[in-house]
Write a structure and sequence with these properties.
The chain is mainly α and 465 residues long. It has a single domain, classed as Amino acid/polyamine transporter I. Helices cover 71% and strands 2% of the residues. A two-stranded antiparallel sheet has the order 1-2. A hairpin with a 7-residue loop joins strand 1 and strand 2. Helix 7 (185-213) packs parallel to helix 10 (265-295). The longest helix has 42 residues, at 110-151. The N and C termini lie far apart (81 Å).
């Protein structure tokens, strides 16, 4: 009896140390949540904003960024309420939706889940491709900066990108063995610090160049083009780039699943979203506007690698090194939902398979013991290899970002959160709130379609050209 009683006490103690779903205790706070969001949001998208403002002009550029900031917060607020089903999520009780697809399946059903999963994982996969392209571009920029400093600004400093994409892929193979979000808070904090660093540098260089020029370049209507049709394509690509730079709906619920309660997770997420969006919008406005003020219609597609900036060369090198470190973490933030889905899918499909479910301890010199699963090794290796191959085939920075932004924006950042919110909050059809959110969704659909057409046109033009 004494043994039985001690086992009961031990079991009760173990349960007390777990959350309400049997998961190890979640320890995330507002600030770790902000770090994850900033890591996900302030990425390669910030580098294209000077070019985007140049296409939209002084009137349209800043206004477009502010509108997207507001839309992103509305989307995040709607989606955060869907983390728990039942009770509106405000009491921190009820079953959890630990991923975006879990929430869609619970609220909208199987057909919507297949559509959502296809779009979500295609978009997450595309982010991995975009980050591979961007990192290679930054590696080449470091070499070009040093070359220009040594041989002069007219030197033919050209470097291919394939080798550096392969280097980035090799680094991601190593980082992909981090088990999940709960084990990578340190990587998100490092990546967030790096994003602040290169954003500040881009901001400072743009401001310095503007002061050195003695004038603010640019116009109300933006960069001139040869034909009105070309202007329309450039505007649509600029909108797509800004759309890519903002929403983090794809991974919002995965991040929210790291938060401790009380307070209710949706309240913490909304607070973290406000802080993150205010911070990112400030940097976006500064980087985009100062870049446009410095270069006008000649604003480069990638602010820190397009080489409007030449000196101080060591600062350009440092900024691009920060981009590389940030995207090492950002790639993992966007890849983890796919890794977790694959782990769950194969574990449920093959519960008796040792290849799928067994872990093996590996001890490397100077490193702590590492638990390795053969399925993870194979799947994650193939995943990283495939994103690298696609990046090698389509190394077009602005066009790829615009395409991803357009694909993500309406279905994943607007449509699904709005529809799930209606069910979660039991919003009556044709009520003022229902009509307002439906109108909001339709407007965003039209914007997303416009950006998608322009980004496809730009990608085809680059490939054919």
């Amino acid at each position: 009896m004494a043994v039985h009683h001690s086992l009961e006490v031990a079991g009760a103690g173990a349960r007390a140390r777990c959350d309400d779903d049997g998961h190890p205790p979640r320890t995330g706070t507002v600030w770790t949540c902000v770090a994850h969001i900033i890591t996900a949001v302030i990425g390669s998208g910030v580098l294209s904003l000077a070019w985007s403002v140049a296409q939209l002009g002084w009137a349209g550029g800043p206004a477009c960024m502010l509108v997207f900031a507001l839309v992103t917060y509305v989307s995040a607020a709607l989606l955060s309420d869907c983390y728990r089903h039942g009770g509106g999520g405000d009491d921190g009780k009820g079953p959890r939706n630990r991923s975006y697809m879990d929430a869609v399946r619970v609220f909208l059903g199987r057909k919507h889940t297949w559509a959502c999963g296809s779009l979500q994982y295609a978009s997450l996969y595309g982010c991995g491709v975009a980050y591979t392209i961007t990192t290679a571009t930054s590696m080449r920029a470091i070499l070009r900066s040093n070359c220009y400093h040594t041989h002069g600004h007219d030197a033919p400093c050209k470097y291919g990108g394939s080798y550096y994409m392969l280097m980035f892929g090799a680094a991601q193979l190593f980082l992909s063995f981090i088990p999940d979000f709960h084990d990578m808070a340190w990587l998100s904090v490092l990546a967030a610090v790096m994003s602040f660093s290169y954003s500040f540098i881009g901001l400072g260089l743009g401001l310095t160049n503007t002061i050195a020029n003695g004038t603010i370049k640019g116009s109300i209507t933006g960069a001139p083009t040869r034909t009105p049709v070309q202007k329309i394509w450039h505007v649509s690509q600029a909108i797509g780039d800004i759309a890519f730079a903002y929403p983090y709906s794809l991974i919002l619920l995965e991040i929210q699943d790291t938060l401790k309660a009380p307070p209710a997770e949706n309240k913490t997420m909304k607070k973290a979203s406000i802080i993150s969006i205010v911070v990112t919008t400030f940097f976006y406005l500064c980087c985009g506007c100062f870049g446009y003020a410095a270069f006008g219609s000649d604003a480069p597609g990638n602010l820190l690698t397009g080489f409007g900036f030449y000196e101080p060369y060591w600062l350009i090198d440092f900024a691009n090194a920060c981009i590389i470190l940030h995207l090492l973490g950002g790639y993992q933030v966007y890849s983890q939902p796919i890794y977790q889905f694959a782990d769950r899918f194969f574990a449920e499909r093959f519960p008796a398979s040792r290849f799928v479910n067994d872990f093996h301890t590996v001890k490397l010199p100077l490193l702590p013991p590492w638990r390795v699963n053969l399925l993870r090794v194979c799947f994650r290796t193939l995943y990283v290899a495939s994103t690298t191959v696609v990046a090698l085939a389509f190394p077009y920075f602005n066009e790829v970002l615009a395409l991803l932004g357009a694909l993500n924006f309406w279905p994943l950042a607007i449509y699904f959160p709005v529809e799930m919110y209606f069910i979660q909050r039991q919003v009556p059809r044709w009520s003022p709130r229902w009509v307002a959110l439906q109108a909001f969704s339709v407007v965003c659909l039209l914007v997303s379609a416009f950006a998608l057409v322009g980004s496809i046109q730009g990608l085809v033009s680059q490939k054919l050209g």
